[in-house]
Structures are given as C-alpha cells and as structure tokens.
Amino acid sequence: MSGGKIVLDTNALSYFLSGNAEIKEIITDNELLISVITEMEMLSYSGFSAIERKNIRNFLNQCNIIELTYPIRELAIKIRLAHRRKLPDAIIAATAIFFEVPLITTDKDFKNIKDLDLILVSI
Description:
Helix 5 crosses helix 6. The longest helix is centred in the middle third of the chain and has 14 residues. This protein has one domain: Rossmann fold. The protein is α/β, with parallel strands linked by helices. The chain has a five-stranded parallel beta sheet with strand order 3-2-1-4-5.
C-alpha cells in the first residue's frame, strides 16, 4: 500500500517510532493522518524524555493533524454507543471512517466497527 492516505492509531505510531519494520513498510509513501487525540496521547505520555517528545513533535509536524470537527464527533458518539469503545478509540476510528481511509493499529478491538477499513498489525 503506497501513495494513499492512512490514519495511524496511537499504538501503531508508538511502534513505528520504536522502529517497527512492518508498520514502517505499510505507511511508507502514504499521507499520514493523525487524530488530535493521538497527538495528545503521544505528547502527554510521561514516560518520554524531553528529546523523545521533541522527536515526536518533529514527526507529527510532518503529518496532517485532524481536529475534532462536528461530523467526526457525531461518528465517534455512534461508534461509542454501538461498540462500547473508549472515547479516544471511538474518535480515532471516526476519523478514519469520515475520511474514508484505512486505520492502522495493533488493537484487535477495532475489528468489529462497522464501515472501518482496518489494517491490523500483529505485534
């Protein structure tokens, strides 16, 4: 898969930044969409050093950060109600569904979300 758009879940981004070759291969040459939720989760993780946080910011600056628009919020509410997902996961899934692009994740719990084009990576 190359040349398209893809949404990165927080865990997939974390594995990618840690050097996971499979995720790197999948996202190479794709336009990366990152939910503002993923941005916030990554930058608020207390286990990162200042240098790691700076590297994450530099990477995120190369991505398209997707804000919480009304249509994404409405989709997230429907997903959360229908699938009992945590709110951050519902928002990330809604982002991928709204933009009609695949979501790459290592989280198997996304498999049951209707209309979600999922790329599930086993780690």
